[in-house]
């Protein structure tokens, strides 16, 4: 399974923010849309990732206040990325190693989408459930006349 398989099911809705936007506005957007991340784009390029983790860290750094902080001050300026052809097992490994909950999907310089750790976990579980059902159906429908007899030689 590849990242493109997840994006096909998930859809192509993208939420972005400019690095010079006030952090408070980005927080409002995240709350309104009930999303955990925003891709930070400037002049058509990916320049960072803003998640609830960076927001909380910045607020703590500011003594509990958002103040006049910009997205640029809070964002992760070197987020992990992948392509649509990246294997889900590789994405899962990268996300676990780097404690990343969200990963932008790029096609060279073009943002194709964002996948979350939840998306990856759901895809893996759905795939395993499908495989499990297929195996159970195969076993249940096993023809009786094709039962394998042990090869016993005396």
Q: What helical percentage do the residues reach? A: 40-55%
Number of DSSP E strands? 5
Cα end-to-end separation:
48 Å
Structural class: alpha+beta
Number of DSSP helical runs:
6
Order of helices and strands: HEHEEHHHEEH
List the uncertain runs: none
Percent of residues in beta strands: 15-25%
Largest sheet: 3 strands, mixed
* 3D shape: elongated
Largest sheet strand order: 1-2-3
Mean pLDDT: 90
The radius of gyration is: 22 Å
Word description of this protein:
This protein has 154 residues and is α+β, with helices and mostly antiparallel strands. 44% of the residues lie in helices and 18% in strands. The chain has helices at residues 3-10, 23-33, 52-61, 71-74, 88-98, 117-140; strands spanning 16-17, 37-42, 45-51, 102-107, 110-116. The protein is elongated, with a radius of gyration of 22 Å. The termini are far apart. The mean pLDDT is 90.
Brief rundown of the structure:
The radius of gyration is 22 Å and the shape is elongated. Helices cover 44% and strands 18% of the residues.
Considering the chains and any ligands shown, give keywords for the structure.
single chain; 154 residues; alpha+beta; elongated
Chain-wise SSE layout:
Layout: H1 3-10, E1 16-17, H2 23-33, E2 37-42, E3 45-51, H3 52-61, H4 71-74, H5 88-98, E4 102-107, E5 110-116, H6 117-140
Parallel strand pairs: 1-2
Antiparallel strand pairs: 2-3, 4-5
